[in-house]
Amino acid sequence: MEKRPVIIDCDTGTDDAIALVAALNCDALDVRAITCVSGNVDLCYTAPNTLNLCRMLGFDVKVAQGSPKPICRDLNDIRLVGNEDEGTISTHGQTGMGNVTLPQCGGDFYEKNAVETIYEEALACGGKLELIAVGPMTNVALALLCHPDLKDLIAHIWFMGGAAYGGNTTAVAEFNILCDPEAAHLVMQSGIDMTMVGLDVTEKAAVPDAACDEIRAIGTKDATVVADILDFMRMRRDEYGGEDTLMHDALAVAAACVPGVVKTSRYFVDTECAGTYTFGHTFVAKDDRFGKFTPNCNVAEEVDMDIFLGWLRSCIQNSKKRA
User: Fold this and answer.
1) DSSP sequence for 171-226
2) What are 147's strand-pairing partners?
3) pTM of the predicted model as reported, rounded to 2 decimal places
4) How far apart are CA 8 and CA 130, in angstroms?
5) b/e per residue, 55-89, with b = 16+ CB within 10 A?
6) Is domain 4-321 classified as CATH 3.30.200.20?
7) Alpha carbon 199 to its chain's center
8) In what helix (H) or strand (E) does residue 265 lie, and over which residues does it extend?
9) If you ran DSSP here, which 8-state letter would residue 207 be given?
10) How does DSSP assign 112-178, residue by residue?
11) 49: closest CA among 108, 95, 93?
12) Which segments of 26-113 does DSSP mark as H helices, in order?
């Protein structure tokens, strides 16, 4: 089976790290590069988290640093909108990796920044490159702004973000989109084919406790770091009433790999950038009561948890091939 070339754009916190472990071990994907952005925590944490994780597990994939801030907003102001200074710390820990400490790899980031790395790989892949964006879409938007021809070189964008209904940071906004709504708007209206894996499905994608224990039993470095993160998430859930072991980002990777793991419908999707109470909201036009819209995005609406958990376990099981 020919592997599909992808770049993963992420703000590596806890569930991003699990998504990366799964993607790097997935038989379907050729991870050409990983680009880092501020989001769950600042870039000074997300980029080293990504580099250290990859090198600890023995992957020499390119890791490129991206934007430390949204296109035209202050990230700290955005975090305050939903009290996210406290929320992201409680969800991801001070440095993004919960209570998991990664060894310092001492390696180097890729010589090019995220924007130029995305463009370089898009050219090299001749229109076959896919992007999996599991953080704010700042890097992707900047790449499109700097290289207008990029929109014709990306085969598909899979992104974790948004929701057809509600939000998790404000009443109407999901965190990744809220962090840089202008970037999300630009990407959504770029004309690139895309799939949105939003809260409507990711909030159903919790790893059961028994599955957490099964993952640890695999016994590799990859399995251990995933299990340690899951244990942190379980501890926050049990002791502080925090979020469950939700695999927001890993589900977006799975959607890119496994037919049937999510059920999608095609709608017009855009991001609200101006509303006092609604900026960061993803508008999903599910009917024509509010106007006629041309669908531009596959929107995930249901998840098959048996398929997802089977895929996640199989990816981590693949790490035994390198042990």
Assistant:
1) SSB-HHHHH-HHHHHHHHTS---EEEE-HHHHTT-BPPHHHHHHHHHT-SHHHHHH
2) none
3) 0.95
4) 9
5) bebebebbbbbbbebbbebebeebbeebebeebbe
6) no
7) 12
8) strand 262-271
9) P
10) S-HHHHHHHHHHHTTT-EEEEE-S-SHHHHHHHHH-GGGGGTEEEEEEE---SS--SSSSSB-HHHH
11) 95
12) 43-56, 75-81, 84-92
Which two structure tokens, joined as six digits, stand for 178? 């809220």
Report whether 62 contacts 111 (CB < 8 A).
Answer: no
**Chain centroid, CA 40 distance in Å:** 11
- CA neighbor of 62 nearest in space, from 5, 19, 100: 5
Q: Which residue has 């940071």 as its token pair?
A: 169
pLDDT tens sequence across 148-202: 999 999 999 999 999 999 999 999 999 999 999 999 999 999 999 999 999 999 9
The predicted pLDDT at position 90 comes to 52
pLDDT at 40: 87
Residues in the chain: 323
The two structure tokens encoding residue 115: 């924007």
For residue 91, name the pLDDT band (cuts at 50, 70, 90): low
CA atoms within 13 A on the CB side of 183: 29
Of 61, 20, 118, 67, the closest CA to residue 319 belongs to: 20
Q: Where does residue 42 rank: exposed (0-12), middle (13-18), buried (19+ CB within 10 A)?
A: middle
Residue in this structure with the two tokens 């499905």, named with its chain if needed: 201
Tell me the Cα Rg of the chain: 18
Catalytic residue among 147, 156, 185, 248: 248
What are the boundaries of each domain within the chain? 4-321
- 41 within 8 A of 96, measured Cβ to Cβ: yes
Q: Active-site residue 185, yes or no?
A: no
Which residue has 């990366």 as its token pair? 20
